[in-house]
Amino acid sequence: MDCEILVSGVPLTVKSVFAVIMHQSVTDRLSARAEAFVRTSGMRVNTPGRRTRTTVVLGRVLGILMLVCFSTGLYSHVLQNPPEWFPLSPQPAQLYRFTQGTHVLAGLALVPVLLGKLWSVFPRLFVWPPVTGVLSFLERLAVAVLVSTALLEVALGVMNIAQWYIFPFSFRRVHFALAWILIGSIALHVAIKLPAIVSFWRRPSVDSHTTTDAPASGDTSSHAEAVSRRGALIAVGTAAGLIVATTAGQTFAPLRSIAFLAPRRPYTGPQSLPVNRTAAEAGVLDSARSPSWRLTITGATKSIELSREDLLSMNQTTVELPIACVEGWSQQATWRGVRLKDLLELVDERNVDVRLESLQVRGAFATTTMQAAYVADPTTLAALFLGDEPLDIDHGYPLRVIAPGRPGVLQTKWLSRIEVIR
Questions:
Q1: Quick check: is 187 in a domain?
Q2: Measured between alpha carbons, how far is 402 from 370 in angstroms, rounded to an integer?
Q3: pLDDT band at 260 (very low <50, low <70, confident <90, very high)
Q4: Number of folded domains that form the chain
Q5: Does residue 56 have a pLDDT over 90?
Q6: Is residue 207 very low, low, confident or very high in pLDDT (cuts 50, 70, 90)?
Q7: Quick one: average pLDDT of 39-66?
Q8: How far apart are CA 168 and CA 156, in angstroms?
Q9: 163 and 76 both lie in a single domain
Q10: What is the pLDDT of residue 204?
Q11: DSSP code for 254
Q12: Mean pLDDT score, 337-350
């Protein structure tokens, strides 16, 4: 029979007391082993280059690149989904080419910088105890959101550049939503880490190494640490530079000979112009070549149909405009066709928004809208020719839209209908 003792009036047997003691002993041993493992692992990964100064330097670059990506990406999103209240201008004609090229190059440069930043803060994972209170828990949670969102955002962006859509959701919507989460996470992280950022913003003097940034026991000398830290930064900078240099040629023609990582190269494709979506992929091979094709123009009170021959008989305008795609590639080209505003005057319409419809049966952007400012611009064409040749079918034969300052996805190919909307 077990002996009983009273603790605060509650009977406890010797067996139950022994069980409690053993449980505490096991818990203490497991906790001690976990602490030893974490601390040992932290010492092993705490290499000389992984210092607060390294993290702050990489963080500055990372912050600049992310702000560039966010602002240029927001501009691209507004162009593709223009709010009714937001005025857009077709000029300067090269603006979208510049902003989207910058967006993609900055996003690609983020890859080594982000990995370098994660490498520099990796030892922070091995702190004990991992959470010391509510604020500590919230800080770790904010970092988890920031890191996971950043990695996912960059990964999706790279996959979009390569047009590798293995995910079952809309890239544009998810990418846009993640961008806001990422910016919010960055703002919160900067607020939390502001004291450390201020302390290590500038390069410390040679003899002013602080204890918080000094090498741990067993590390190399301060001079060796500086070399290691500098080496880490040089490695990240070199990787980012190589990625940019071997990709920029897809929009900056002088570098096209070394554009090894670019999914599109200038002057490559039908009529020496790259193609994103072919006529076969859009399902228009038969309808685009059909002799019965007509362009329908519908106004508020009048509607007409025009054959390709009718369009060829009208006054032709030649313009120099770029194709600039969301994947970051772009190329200047010569286009010839009928001004869009001249076509709308045939149905007695001026200064109106229009809806553009394509023959394509597969893929997004079969129907797009164009604001009145673009319609009225004298360089906005319903193009029939690319250079001196009729449009290749992969470039939109029999008719396509070309307008200044618009993303390539909105330069509607295989145009079949123009409808006035108010």
A1: yes
A2: 11
A3: confident
A4: 3
A5: no
A6: very low
A7: 71
A8: 12
A9: yes
A10: 57
A11: G
A12: 95
Give the tokens for residue 210. 């602080």
Q: 71: domain range?
A: 52-202+221-245
Q: Helices 95-121 & 52-80, crossing angle to 10 degrees?
A: 150
Collapsing DSSP to helix, strand or coil, 401 comes out as strand
Beta-sheet strands, E only, within 188-306: 295-298, 303-306
**How many helices (H) and strands (E) are present in the chain, helices listed first?**
11, 12
The whole-angstrom separation of Cα 276 and Cα 281 is 10
Report the alpha-carbon distance of residue 137 to residue 131 in Å, rounded.
6
Strands 400-402 vs 381-386: parallel, antiparallel or unpaired: antiparallel
- Is residue 409 very low, low, confident or very high in pLDDT (cuts 50, 70, 90)? very high
pTM for the whole thing? 0.80
The residue type at 8: S
In a domain, 122, yes or no: yes
Indicate the pairing of strand 317-324 with strand 303-306. unpaired
DSSP H/E element including 386 = strand 381-386
Residue 103 in any domain: the answer is yes
In CATH, what number is assigned to the domain containing residue 330? Answer: 3.90.420.10
Whether the CB-CB separation of 416 and 295 falls below 8 Å is answered with yes
pLDDT at 213 over 60: no
Q: What is the DSSP string of 173-202?
A: HHHHHHHHHHHHHHHHHHHHHHHHHHHTSS
Q: Which of 118, 115, 77 is nearest to 96 (CA)?
A: 77
Cα–Cα–Cα angle for 337, 339, 340, rounded to 5 degrees? 120
What does the DSSP 8-state code read for residue 315? P
Range with the largest mean pLDDT of 39-43, 228-232, 270-274: 270-274
Whether 304 is in a domain gets the answer yes
Cis check for the bond before 129: say yes or no (omega within 30 of 0): yes
Residues 238 and 136 in one domain: yes
Question: What is the rounded average pLDDT for all residues in the chain?
Answer: 83
- Residue 234: which CATH number? 1.20.950
**Could you tell me if 89 and 24 lie in one domain?**
no
Could you tell me which residues come within 8 angstroms of residue 61 by beta carbon, excluding any fewer than 6 positions away?
Answer: 113
How high is the pLDDT of residue 59? 86
- Flag whether pLDDT at 165 surpasses 90: no
Share of the chain above pLDDT 70, in %: 81
